[in-house]
Design brief:
Strand order of the largest sheet: 1-2-3
Radius of gyration: 29 Å
Number of helices: 7
Oligomer: single chain
Low-confidence stretches: 1-16
Mean pLDDT: 81
Length: about 170
């Protein structure tokens, strides 16, 4: 069923085009069924973490010419419950993972967020500090000009106010 730019399926709506899509949440029954699958490491109401064994299995089967939905079905997953978008996203991520030096190992714990410290050479550090100094100088100039304009406007306002003419 389609209406107003949205596609309704399985009790949820998904937008079409550039509009943000809603997340397909799993029911408690679906979560329990997923948790029983040996290829599932962790499952929440909206996400699944697959085991490294399944990621490797998926790559081997995909290389043999099987379709992603068929691989999931044969591994004991319900493709309808997962949804085609989730299956396609997994296939894309796993193909990228297979080309990494780290392989299928989950990198989120060790590579999340911004690095706390960047090692720089003396020359890089000097260039960085010079850049910071230029930025500060520009900020100071903007503040000086803003202050000057504000002071000029205040002086003009005082000259033109009726109370100063008396």
């Amino acid at each position: 069923m389609q209406f107003a730019g949205y596609l309704a399926y399985n009790g949820h709506t998904r937008s079409i085009g550039a509009i943000k899509m809603s997340v397909h949440h799993f029911t408690d029954e679906q979560r329990k069924q997923l948790e029983m699958n040996p290829f599932v490491k962790k499952v929440s109401s909206k996400a699944i973490t697959y085991s490294e064994a399944f990621k490797e299995h998926f790559c081997v089967e995909y290389a043999l010419g099987k379709q992603p939905t068929q691989i999931f079905r044969e591994a004991g997953f319900d493709p309808v419950a997962l949804g085609q978008v989730r299956i396609d996203g997994f296939a894309k991520r796993v193909r990228k993972m297979s080309q990494r030096a780290e392989g299928f190992e989950d990198q989120r714990a060790t590579h999340s967020g911004r690095p706390r410290h960047v090692e720089r050479t003396t020359q890089e550090e000097l260039a960085f500090l010079r850049h910071q100094l230029k930025v500060r100088d520009q900020q100071i100039e903007v503040l000086k000009k803003t202050n000057f304009i504000h002071h000029k406007a205040e002086t003009k306002r005082k000259r033109n106010s009726p109370s100063s003419n008396e």
